[in-house]
């Protein structure tokens, strides 16, 4: 799978509305057949920073994502809400889902 984590620093005046601003893009991406997950979180240390954790089945699914109309729209509409260019980590992993963190296994 292609595993991506990106950090978005949002202008303070848009920080509270970021989930709404990205809703259409998020929903469309989650509906892509090759999308495994597409999840936003907000930093506990910086209320203007959102972290996106996303995964796609394979390279073809990743390519379909960046070639989609909703991705193209996001490239045009999201940057004016940002302080800086998002930072990203993008890698290929030999798995297709989350693994368990065995060191913190929950005991019954």
Please provide a written account of the structure.
- Strand 2 (35-42) and strand 3 form a beta hairpin.
- The chain has 108 residues and is an alpha+beta fold.
- The chain has one domain (2-95): 2-Layer Sandwich (Alpha-Beta Plaits), CATH 3.30.70.100.
- It has a 4-stranded antiparallel sheet.
- The model has no long low-confidence stretch (mean pLDDT 97).
- The chain has helices at residues 18-21, 23-30, 59-66, 69-77, and strands at 2-9, 35-42, 49-56, 87-92.
- It has 4 helices and 4 strands, in the order E-H-H-E-E-H-H-E.
- The protein is globular, with a radius of gyration of 15 Å.
- GO terms for molecular function: monooxygenase activity.
- This is Quinol monooxygenase.
- It is an enzyme of class 1 (oxidoreductase).
- It comes from Streptomyces chiangmaiensis.
- Keywords: Monooxygenase, Oxidoreductase.
Summarize the structure.
GO terms for molecular function: monooxygenase activity. The protein has a single domain (2-95), classed as Alpha-Beta Plaits.
Helix percent band: 25-40%
The low-confidence runs, each spanning 5 or more residues with pLDDT under 50, are none
Spell out the helices and strands N to C.
Answer: EHHEEHHE
Structural class: alpha+beta
Instruction: Give me the number of helical elements.
Output: 4
Keywords: Monooxygenase, Oxidoreductase
GO molecular function: monooxygenase activity
InterPro entries: ABM_dom (IPR007138), AI-2_Isomerase_LsrG (IPR050744), Dimeric_a/b-barrel (IPR011008)
EC number: 1.-.-.-
Element layout with pairings:
Layout (H helix, E strand, L loop, with lengths): L1 E8 L8 H4 L1 H8 L4 E8 L6 E8 L2 H8 L2 H9 L9 E6 L16
Antiparallel strand pairs: 1-3, 1-4, 2-3
């Amino acid at each position: 799978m292609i595993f991506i984590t990106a950090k978005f620093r949002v202008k303070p005046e848009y920080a509270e509305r970021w989930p709404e601003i990205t809703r259409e893009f998020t929903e469309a991406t989650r509906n892509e057949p090759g999308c495994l997950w597409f999840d936003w979180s907000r930093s506990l240390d910086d209320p203007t920073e959102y972290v996106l954790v996303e995964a796609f089945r394979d390279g073809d699914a990743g390519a379909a994502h960046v070639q989609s109309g909703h991705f193209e729209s996001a490239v045009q509409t999201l940057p004016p809400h940002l302080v800086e260019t998002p930072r990203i980590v993008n890698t290929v992993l030999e798995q297709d889902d989350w693994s368990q963190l065995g060191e913190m296994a929950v005991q019954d």
